[in-house]
Amino acid sequence: MTDVLHPAVAGPQAIDLRLRIYRMMVEMRDFEKRAYDLFLQGLVKGTSHLGLGQEAVAAGFGAAMRPEDYTFATYRGHNHTLARGVPMAPVMAELMGREAGLMAGKGGSMHLTSVAHRMMGSYAIVGAHLTIANGAAWSSKLRGTSEVTVCFFGDGTTNIGAFHEALNLAAVWQLPVVFVCENNRWMEYTPIGSVTAVQHPAGDRAPAYGLAPVVIDGNDADATYAAAAAAIERARGGGGPSLIEAETYRHGGHSRADPGKYRPESEVASWLARDPLPLYRRRLLDAGVSEQVLASVEEASRQAVDEATELAAASPPPDLSLVEKDVFADGGSAWRR
Amino acid sequence: MTDVLHPAVAGPQAIDLRLRIYRMMVEMRDFEKRAYDLFLQGLVKGTSHLGLGQEAVAAGFGAAMRPEDYTFATYRGHNHTLARGVPMAPVMAELMGREAGLMAGKGGSMHLTSVAHRMMGSYAIVGAHLTIANGAAWSSKLRGTSEVTVCFFGDGTTNIGAFHEALNLAAVWQLPVVFVCENNRWMEYTPIGSVTAVQHPAGDRAPAYGLAPVVIDGNDADATYAAAAAAIERARGGGGPSLIEAETYRHGGHSRADPGKYRPESEVASWLARDPLPLYRRRLLDAGVSEQVLASVEEASRQAVDEATELAAASPPPDLSLVEKDVFADGGSAWRR
Amino acid sequence: MAEMTYRDAVAYGIAQEMRRDPSVVFLGEDVGAAGGVFKATVGVLDAFGPTRVFDTPISEQAILGAAMGAAMTGLRPIAEIMFSDFFAVCWDIVANEMAKTRYMTNGQVTLPLVVRSGNGGGSRFGAQHSQSVENWAMAVPGLKVVAPSNPKDVVGLLAAAVRDTDPVVFFEQKSLYPTKGEVPDGEIVDELGRATVLRRGGAATVVALAAMVPRAMAAADQLATEGIDVTVIDLRCLVPLDVTTVATSVAETGHLVTVEENPRLCGWGAELASIIAEENLFDLDGPIVRVTTPHVPLPAADALEDAAMPDVARIVDGVRRSVL
Amino acid sequence: MAEMTYRDAVAYGIAQEMRRDPSVVFLGEDVGAAGGVFKATVGVLDAFGPTRVFDTPISEQAILGAAMGAAMTGLRPIAEIMFSDFFAVCWDIVANEMAKTRYMTNGQVTLPLVVRSGNGGGSRFGAQHSQSVENWAMAVPGLKVVAPSNPKDVVGLLAAAVRDTDPVVFFEQKSLYPTKGEVPDGEIVDELGRATVLRRGGAATVVALAAMVPRAMAAADQLATEGIDVTVIDLRCLVPLDVTTVATSVAETGHLVTVEENPRLCGWGAELASIIAEENLFDLDGPIVRVTTPHVPLPAADALEDAAMPDVARIVDGVRRSVL
Ligand SMILES: Cc1ncc(C[n+]2csc(CCOP(=O)(O)OP(=O)(O)O)c2C)c(N)n1
Ligand SMILES: Cc1ncc(C[n+]2csc(CCOP(=O)(O)OP(=O)(O)O)c2C)c(N)n1
Ligand SMILES: [Mg+2]
Ligand SMILES: [Mg+2]
């Protein structure tokens, strides 16, 4: 566990950054709670995978990234999408399958993508996007830019072949990529410990790729920021890839319909007690931020979510012509001539 | 490197075993040299991948296995096939695409299989057979037998996804399987060091699966036997899988048409100087085996190869009806009714 | 005789076979303790315990490799690939290893195993969790391919698949899981490679598979009200393919319409159409019409997904175009 | 105008595009220093250096993932999958990622990349190194699929593929590598989706691809001696598919024979046959005949492999069965 604060969040001068991180976390939390409500109301029709409880990872890394950096995420990618500054309304509309959706409803919750924000996609086949993230990082390097790619995935993902191939290639080619394993202890309904040969699915495997093991408290946004800043800096400076394991927990089930009852109550309770939001809120209060400032962040977030929901709900279903659009780059789907 | 001899080969009473290992190596060497001649004569038509120089691995492990144990090998599997007692003639005939072939010509050099000898196949897609070897080991465990599975593969194979998946599952399920990485320093034409994040492609990765790193001198048949006996014993006793990296070298090119010229001359020379056969021969002489005994082993091998070649060459091409045979278990290929 | 969901029929069928034959083992992701992500294997772990039912890591290649190696050495594994889209991460084991090993070894290796998988669209899961990939499997020599449309067939065809000595890919259509049907009491064992004629009519032969079967039946109802009586055939298996039943019917009706969920190109409909166009051309009185999903990935939004997949209206239209 | 092997045309084509466009990079196993295991990329590393040509580990998923990520972010990669059989170990990246990402992102992501691969049989490599898998790619919406039959087309179609804004799977038929043909001087850029009519005759339309093209031409020669003059079409691309050229010819000849190397079920021949059987049924004067490899894995022995693959005699026979 990292117990030194990154200089950027250590001093009182860092309040702006920390408030930004807090704001991101609050927005993620409010957004996803609303998404859950909408699902209960039958308005989110497909599946969705919430990151409730894991906000400190997305926020800490999001805050440490520059606009030119690339994000690759999984189906559990709402938080990582918001962290790049993608507005809530199109994300909400995408979950609801509306025309105003980020991808006009064609991708759905599991595939959030906003190239304009360098949110390069959410991928729903476990493992694949680690190899694709490499490609973006490789391109950044070949094009001589200073872009860094950050790639998020879960603990369960460390047991699939693509993980291994991606990590090795990243290390051999010294790519500017940061792999972030959000170890929330569970795959879908199976505990990671029961199917993994090592205790830290990512941390204990870093040496297999010549990388340093890094295991951090993923519920502590200062710790995630610190690890992010260090790894991103290193990557940007030509120091190659990192593999970071952030220990965290999802508060709810795996996907929308799952109550998550297979988890021991005591485990759930102990992690709820370590909820990253109140933890960070307290820390900001301790650092001298006023209750009022925090409350106004929270109020703004609630409003933003309300507005986004309204906008999304007001949007019509996508035009049916979209079914045959954009299979190919000419905009169409014609496979014959 | 292992520098203690296994008790079984340590004392003078072990001469029989060591002679057996020597005989296996000599037969492998002679067999493959003949296979190469036949290729030059246009009699071996498909591709083939020789293990010349790597005999000590196949022989050491072969000698340590019991008849009930399973072997899984790669396209470079002639030696491992012979090591299980499969007669030379059908192997030679298979290389030549003849009716008398081990699989009547249907598989070819890359797919040597003799279920009767528990040689469960040679596999030509890098990595796949590690997962299949697990399956055999899993079955042995579930059926309550004491069978052990030994699975051979190359250094380049450690970078493909299936390697990772197989090693993790073997460790989690504590399967009676021994994975043997024959590190001959080269993939096809690319040196393993240039594409691998760690120095020992298997050894340095064993800890990623909770396994002990084991790197042995793969050109020393006593060392390979010792490592094999220890790992097989452990597996048989319920101690789970092992991953062994045997350092060795192929004397020739990757496959039949490759002269292997991409390799530095000094590297080739240094490894030829460590040719496992003369090394072991000298050791047996030192241990008191007579020149005469060794010469008779060698003479018998030459004769066996000659006979096998004759038998194979006398065999006709396979009957064309085999094309549509044994796609399915009813013996046929009918996909319709 | 009990009414049962398609979902429950899966667990019922697995249990029937595991009870009968101790060499049947079952493995996959979340299949044991959780009873499967589609809840199609609830109770199997409880009934047969952790020495026969195995939760695995997310390692599809390792899962199928384990199944294959076990099948080579005396067991009869049933492996689950959660969504059929994930065949893409382990296709090597299916297409290059399982399918070819008996052939390459000249019959030495036998692979009695079943790979079950949730297949198909209609659940708003988007392009990577909704594919119909039965044609991927059909295109590979050495695999048998099954796709039941109702609970009784799930049980009977699963039993046939488990007892079969070849590798069988068994597609369960995800959108059918909640549907119900009668399942007779006692052991049910069906036969691979026999299509079922669900309805007879002289106007055209409509051939469907899995989730397209109820839609084809609904289309037949609608066409009947217009005086167009069609034969509806549930293909049930793609390999072995029951050409006889289809060809016999086409000889009577003169018209063939296939209804498939997979995207347009190179589906089983194309195979069937080509067989008829080669062997029974002169029986045809009108064009062979294939109703398929267009050649697009599946969109996530409900409105779009519904528009993409073949529906009753498109089937009706397809029949009309054929009999015109 | 120079005579060149199919093999050399690959390196020539890659070099033409890499010279023209600095965003084109090239990666794969043994493709650089060794010039490729088929020696089809000799000289490319020397010409463009290690900042544009990359030897990779044996990690097909990582290779294609790298290509895809690079294509998303400004480069135009050419990736090699050594043998097309190995698509099975990275099919997820091809079928689930490359093919679907533009669609799922509503056009946000563009993937200008080419995956080249050695395809097909005839080299006695056995079942895991001899497959024709062009139908695997054709069945997946979102991929373009190319398979040239001669050196000039290799250069021109490769250029078209590299310049195309979509992911293109480019199949090089391994047994064609040593064959020679004329390649015009200067830049050669062809067009995807245009079949070539190689020979015209009124008796039947014979459509072939890649290695089957020279065999179809030889069959046409033989048939001509019997007074049966056929049209031979080299399809060249499967997606886009030049239905127009084929259908126009069938309208003239009344007979369609497809000659494909892939195993029987669900090949491009089935797709083409079904299209004609749906859209041009009444142009047909005889059965549509598909000449294919039987539905078997390929055997290794030369005698067996030759017996399995379509040869001139079987093509001749196929035409006879159609025109009868
Ligand atoms: C190749 C593949 N196998 C299985 C799945 C089904 N699946 C989706 S999410 C998931 C669990 C992933 O666990 P983890 O990587 O820990 O991520 P988390 O969901 O906990 O964020 C599984 C098994 C999949 N999407 N892709
Ligand atoms: C998945 C896959 N990728 C590529 C190949 C082509 N290939 C065959 S052997 C080989 C090199 C393997 O190297 P290694 O594992 O070190 O084994 P060695 O040949 O040295 O015994 C390659 C790349 C293959 N057969 N399968
Ligand atoms: Mg997890
Ligand atoms: Mg090697």
Q: What is the gist of this entry?
A:
The complex is a heterotetramer, with two copies of chain A (337 residues) and two copies of chain C (324 residues). Chain A is of the alpha/beta class and 337 residues long.
Termini distance of chain A?
60 Å
Structural class, judged by helices and strands of chain A?
Answer: alpha/beta
Query: How much is the average pLDDT of chain A?
Result: 96
The CATH first-level class of chain A comes to Alpha Beta
Q: By helix and strand content of chain C, what is the structural category?
A: alpha/beta
Task: Please provide a written account of the structure.
- The complex is a heterotetramer, with 2 copies of chain A (337 residues) and 2 copies of chain C (324 residues).
- Chain A is α/β, with parallel strands linked by helices and 337 residues long.
- Chain A has one domain: Thiamin diphosphate (ThDP)-binding fold, Pyr/PP domains (Rossmann fold, 3-Layer(aba) Sandwich).
- Chain A has helices at 7-10, 15-40, 55-64, 78-82, 88-95, 128-142, 161-172, 221-236, 265-272, 276-286, 291-314; strands at residues 70-74, 119-123, 149-154, 177-183, 214-217, 242-247.
- Chain C is 37% helix and 21% strand.
- Chain C has helices at 6-20, 44-48, 60-72, 91-104, 134-138, 151-163, 212-225, 243-253, 268-279, 302-308, 312-323, and strands spanning 2-5, 24-28, 53-55, 76-83, 114-119, 144-146, 168-173, 180-183, 196-199, 204-208, 230-234, 237-239, 256-263, 289-293.
- In chain C, helix 1 (6-20) runs parallel beside helix 6 (151-163).
- The relative contact order of chain C is 0.12.
- The model of chain C has no long low-confidence stretch (mean pLDDT 98).
- The chains are: A alpha/beta (337), C alpha/beta (324).
- The A-C interface holds A 45-47, 97-98, 101, 104-111, 123-128, 156-157, 159-162, 187-190, 194-196, 262, 317-318, 320, 322-324, 327, 333, 335 and C 29-30, 33-34, 37, 55-61, 85-86, 88-89, 123-129, 264-265, 294-297, 299-304, 307-308.
- Bound molecules: thiamine diphosphate (TPP) (2 copies) and magnesium ion (MG) (2 copies).
- One thiamine diphosphate sits between chains B (76, 124-126, 153-157, 160, 184, 186-188, 254) and D (29, 58, 60, 82, 86, 89).
- One magnesium ion binds at residues 154-156, 184, 186-187 of chain A.
